[in-house]
TraB/GumN family protein (Alteromonas aquimaris), 288 residues
Amino acid sequence: MKKGIVAVATLLFTLSAQAASVWKVSNESHSLYIGGTLHILSPQDYPLPSSYKLAYNEADKVIFETDIAALSSPEFSQLSLQTLVYQDEQTLQQTLQPETYSALKTHLDSRGIPISTMQKLKPSLVGITLSMIEFQRLGLTSQGVDSYYYTIAMGDGKSVGWFETPEEQLNFIASMGKGDEDAFIRYSLEDVKKIPTMLDQLRGDWREGDLAALNQYNLQEFKESFPKIYDELLTQRNLNWMPDIEEMLATPEVEFILVGTLHIPGDTGLLDLLNAKGYTITQVLATE
């Protein structure tokens, strides 16, 4: 079963022991934890698997992809508008081929949304917006794992850090579909049709930390269909983060790294990259 790519790019019991998307990475003397996140969840996804709490309690510092607080600042909102919204006379209708624009209008009409509200949005933001509309229709209205633990860390006075600036993340988003905007919107329209069927499995694979399933059902089609976006959004960012992670593993301080779940599996995922460096990797079991 093929899974939605754009949807995944924006996202994701019993009393017995179960796996979860948290791993302990160790060398001979130091260790840290890596947890996979979905950036938006439903209320039913809480409480999170207990492995997250274990890793958080063990950690001296929590590391996120980016500065969570800055994402809600007025300055970042203004920058987002400047980056993802047309600032000149260009419109979405002028950017897309007539048949693609018509298909987008038909879809938005079915959701009760006038296409006029998207005329000034660039295709990368349109794709994300289409996914967010479907997520909200399916009840994904709660904060994700990263925002949840950022709030807890702030309340506990625990140190936090991040790999990328919000501006860098914004540039990654803006690059989605750049140069092939028409194909990107057509794919996004097909993508959102898959969300209802893919969501349960994605969230299940995330909770269980099933790397093989996450790779097979969520990454392979992404890699084949959009190799450039895959490389920019996943592979290159993982490689950029590796020196920081290795530096963390050289100190006695224990970090809990929280990144999008799809940064973790695959041959260029963080766990394979760390395994190739000789680190010991152990999946943390959740007891609930």
